[in-house]
Write a structure and sequence with these properties.
The chain is 66% helix and 0% strand. The chain is an all-alpha fold. Among the domains are: 4-113, no CATH class; 118-201 and 340-415, no CATH class. α11 crosses α12.
């Protein structure tokens, strides 16, 4: 006979099996078949052909993980059992963050669903301002940069060296503004209705190590993997080697979570590998810094570490964006071996989908984003500062922001607005 604990483990196992089976069927079945066929072809065996073609539901990875977190939280007795099916269904399919997160925990969102939410002017105002900042990131910056990035990455063998470098740096900005913008819109929309969702981004490009970057980037997913995969695998409790293995497993799975392509697996593996190398070399770096009398708390040292971190992260983004690992390696080789800096001075970069005025608008908008993130990184809350001003100053800021987004945003029938990048996951 099974005892109560065994029954709980069985039901948790069934929940994970069913949910992950659905995710595998829709997202990874064709990927698995394709890779099996590669092996069979090398062995001169008959290839497998799938008997059906399934359309991938938008955001399936997000709400599958949200459902799994509820199962684990109930098993760990961190949340009550929700017996009202409609409330549970609302938790899993809460529309502001349904298709691209943040991946909410039952301890936060489910408990809020059980409470009444009256109208609050403060929530309404704050939510709309977050949404406005999200729209600025998405349709002013991300969608505009997408024209240049898609041009270069869409035909990688037509360009060389500096073109790849420019497109890769701008893609780092694009994906940040695209995903952070959606998260802000989702959090803002929920705030208008009285719901508090978790922050999903915290100035990630000011991080001074890859490990810190991942504490600031896609926080809801990173913390999900920490709580439901890294810690159950043993975390850092079973020795250094096991910790490194667990980190690599988590980031390889994270890469596969993002998409059924080897480019995502390589991207995830590199992010894990950089963290392992960084942790392994930390004692040596400290001894070298002491020997050279480097002031680790100096501004110059912080800037150097931030720049080095961005270079490593941006290197991995090349695999994330490229159509294949082969394309990514071709681009990296070209960046390292072909030098054509004159393209930044002879107007060549203005033939990549953005005119000179549009390109300069991108740079101006990125400068605004940089200042805003730097102030946030320094714990200076811009929104609070704005709300402290008198009514005329506040509304000047509001209207300026709205007009800027309306005038310079990529939207309307005359534009091919880009879908949110993370909708495909």
């Amino acid at each position: 006979m099974y005892n109560q604990s065994d029954k709980k483990k069985i039901f948790v196992g069934l929940s994970f099996t069913l949910n992950l089976s659905v995710l595998f069927l829709f997202k990874y079945f064709d990927f698995a078949i394709d890779n099996i066929n590669v092996i069979l072809a090398k062995c001169n065996l008959e290839l497998l052909t799938p008997g059906f073609d399934l359309l991938l539901p938008v955001g399936i990875s997000f709400y599958i993980f949200q459902a799994l977190s509820y199962t684990m939280d109930v098993y760990r007795k961190e949340i009550y059992v929700e017996r009202n099916f409609l409330k549970y269904a609302l938790f899993v399919s809460f529309f502001p963050q349904l298709v691209a997160g943040p991946i909410e925990r039952s301890k936060n969102l489910l408990e809020q669903i059980g409470r009444e939410h009256g109208f609050s002017y403060e929530n309404f105002r704050q939510g709309l301002l977050w949404m406005l900042w999200g729209y600025f990131q998405k349709i002013v910056i991300a969608d505009r940069i997408a024209f240049l990035v898609d041009t270069v990455y869409g035909d990688v063998y037509q360009y060389q060296g500096g073109y790849y470098l420019l497109a890769s740096v701008l893609f780092a900005v694009q994906i940040y503004c695209d995903f952070s913008g959606y998260s802000l819109i989702a959090v803002g929309a929920a705030k208008v209705m009285g719901f508090q969702l978790m922050e999903n981004f915290d100035c990630p490009y000011f991080a001074q190590s890859v490990a810190e970057f991942w504490r600031r980037w896609h926080i809801s997913l990173t913390s999900w993997f920490r709580d439901y995969l890294y810690i159950p695998l043993g975390g850092n409790r079973k020795g250094t080697i096991r910790k490194y293995i667990n980190i690599l497993i988590v980031f390889l799975v994270s890469g596969l979570w993002h998409g059924a392509q080897w480019t995502y697996v390589v991207w995830g593996g590199l992010n894990g590998l950089f963290q392992v190398i960084g942790s392994f070399l930390l004692p040596l770096r400290k001894r070298v810094a002491e020997a050279l009398q480097v002031k680790e708390d100096s501004i110059g040292h912080h800037v150097l570490k931030t720049m080095a971190t961005f270079v490593m992260v941006d290197f991995t983004w090349i695999f994330f964006r490229a159509e294949s690992v082969h394309d990514a390696l071709h681009m990296i080789k070209s960046i390292l071996t072909i030098y054509n800096p004159w393209i930044f001075m002879d107007g060549s970069i203005y033939k990549l989908g953005l005119s000179q005025k549009q390109f300069h608008l991108v740079l101006f908008s990125i400068a605004i984003l940089f200042v805003a993130d730097w102030l946030k990184y320094r714990n200076i809350k811009i929104l609070d500062k704005i709300l402290e001003q008198n009514i005329w100053c506040r509304w000047t800021v509001y209207l300026t922001g709205i007009l800027f987004v309306l005038i310079f945003g990529i939207w309307g029938n005359t534009y091919d607005a880009q879908a949110f990048v993370y909708f495909q996951f």
